[in-house]
Amino acid sequence: MSEPEKLRVCALYPELMNIYADRGNLLMLRRRCQWRGIAFELTSAGIGEDIDPDGADIFYMGGGQDRDQELCAADLVEHKRESLRAAAARGAIVLGVCGGYQLLGHDYQLGARALPGVGLLDVRTVRSDGPRLTGNVAIEVDLPGAHARVLAGFENHGGRTHLGPQASPLGRVLRGHGNNGSDGYEGARQGSVIGTYLHGPLLPKNAWFADWLISSALGGAALEPLDDELEELAHATARAAAGL
Fold this sequence. Notes:
Radius of gyration: 17 Å
Helix content: 25-40%
Mean pLDDT: 94
Strand content: 25-35%
Largest sheet: 6 strands, mixed
CATH class: Alpha Beta
CATH topology: Rossmann fold
Distance between the termini: 46 Å
Strand order of the largest sheet: 2-1-3-4-14-13
Structural class: alpha/beta
Number of strands: 14
Number of helices: 5
Low-confidence stretches: none
CATH superfamily: Class I glutamine amidotransferase (GATase) domain
């Protein structure tokens, strides 16, 4: 009898980058694996800790306050940038939410100073003097094997993110502000690297996307269906809150 598949997830700065209940995303991945008999391994890497580029199938970073984000930005460059680049080059998923999304880009401009990013997404973010982009949001995405699906969540960010030519939008805004409140797009995708402003947290409101991440991280493995009555209700509620 063959051993069950194992999903290995590495959470980056889970104590600092967790301002929007981002641990819920990790719990969602764990539970959906366990319910299918897929082994789940969660590791973490904090300030000053190196990471193994071959040590996880998904690298995940959530959102944080500016002062925490600044600490993480410096540490990413010193301890983790090259390893994350190597992980992405071999096809590991790198997922950043809100502040994590901003740090996956080239930089985050905060007035006269800029926080360096890891450059895995061809995006740049600038802190705006205008109002924060906040509220319920829904976007239409077109991912391999998951065509024309909706992600729903909540956004709350002062930064305006603009995509360069190498990055594709994660989705088209149906309701809400998205990356910058003007171009009609939300998030970014470049190879196996994904960034989004949707939180609240993201995955419990979008079980199909959690499954897409699991399947993709396991090489496109077919996943056993689950009884998703509650998950579908959570998704429908998030969509309704956004006005869909």
